[in-house]
Amino acid sequence: MLKSPKTPDTHDDDSNAGRRVPTPHTGQGATQIPSADRDLTGEIRVQQAAVRQEVGEDLSLRVRNLSVYYGDFQALDSIDLDIAKGRVTALIGPSGCGKSTLLRCFDRMNDLVPSFRMTGSIDFEGEELVGYGVDPVVIRRRIGMVFQKPNPFPKSIFDNVAFGPRVNGYKGDLKELIERSLRRAALWDEVKDDLKKNALALSGGQQQRLCIARAIAVSPEVILMDEPCSALDPVATLKIEDLMRELAEEYTIVVVTHNMQQAARVSDYTAFLLAADDRTGRLVEFAPTNDIFTNPKDSRTEDYITGRYG
Ligand SMILES: Nc1ncnc2c1ncn2[C@@H]1O[C@H](COP(=O)(O)OP(=O)(O)O)[C@@H](O)[C@H]1O
Ligand SMILES: [Mg+2]
Question: How many C-beta atoms lie closer than 10 Å to residue 66's C-beta?
Fold first, then answer.
């Protein structure tokens, strides 16, 4: 259940409630009129209304006609995207195309930005992710986030992983849960004798695996990762990539990455986003990762993955 046990109108942390407005500019349900658009090479091309490829698998998240605004600026336009359950989906595209914005819609972190507004819908496990009575705190337990820079709390390793379960009033065997989470994050063997050590004393790669353990400890269904390896060295990066593949057996993972090899190695599906001159991000292509990298349908995708612009 996405709804909090509280009555819908008493939750005051849902700062986005009521901000969703109908989509005036696209007229959802009406015929979409393709608009002329200029791509990065200066060529005028017809922008398809929205790219949609259904994955034909069980879905965790279903994004439909999602547009996002920060004040007057439109950051994302008419995104349609299926996130398959128990798979790794990579979001790729040049800086500023709206990858983090899209990811932050999934765990309702954009709600904390006063100028943020969205239209369209995001369905999570058959229920609206955004709406009256949906508690963002509940969402953030079910959909965890791992950030670009490892951000452990200045506390012991144990207390970092125990943080979420404690906040949620975990009644089981906490020690067992901490061990299980650290094992799952491939960190246990390195820290089992040092659980009282301050997490900030760990290496960057260990800190990131600790953040993954912390995310796992509250048993989320989805783990969002925003460039989780960009602050790490190549060895630590490979460890996190291996871990992502392992975690995909149990969780749905959405990962933003600038590293094409990483997207190719870890993901099952890839979504390529691009912002045109108006700086508004659109989904250019979405497909099984192998198809995107071996046989991209859109020339802009090919230009990006072959490094022609970044
Ligand atoms: N809080 C915000 N307020 C205003 N504009 C923002 C905010 N966050 C992001 N943007 C803008 O939205 C666009 C997409 O940003 P972002 O999602 O961070 O892109 P990416 O993660 O792909 O680099 C950029 O033009 C960025 O400047
Ligand atoms: Mg980003």
Answer: 23
pLDDT in tens, 222-235: 999 999 999 999 99
Could you tell me the residue ranges of all domains in the chain? 8-24+36-305
What's the CA gap between 47 and 301, in Å, rounded? Answer: 14
Given the CA of residue 101, which atom of ligand 1 is nearest to it? 17
Q: Domain 8-24+36-305: which CATH class? A: alpha beta
Using the atom order of ligand 1, give the atom closest to the CA of residue 71: 4
User: pLDDT per residue over 189-215, tens digit each?
Assistant: 999 999 999 999 999 999 999 999 999
Q: Tokens 């369209």 belong to which residue?
A: 120
70 lines ligand 1 (CB under 6 A): yes
**Closest-approaching ligand to the CA atom of 76:** 1
Q: What is the pTM of this model?
A: 0.84
The CA 99 to ligand 2 mean position distance, Å, reads 6
Q: Tell how far the Cα of 179 is from the centroid of ligand 2, in angstroms.
A: 32
Question: Taking Cα atoms as reference points, which of 212, 25, 79, 223 lies closest to residue 142?
Answer: 223
Cα–Cα distances in Å, from 97 out to 19, 92, 94, 100?
23, 9, 6, 9
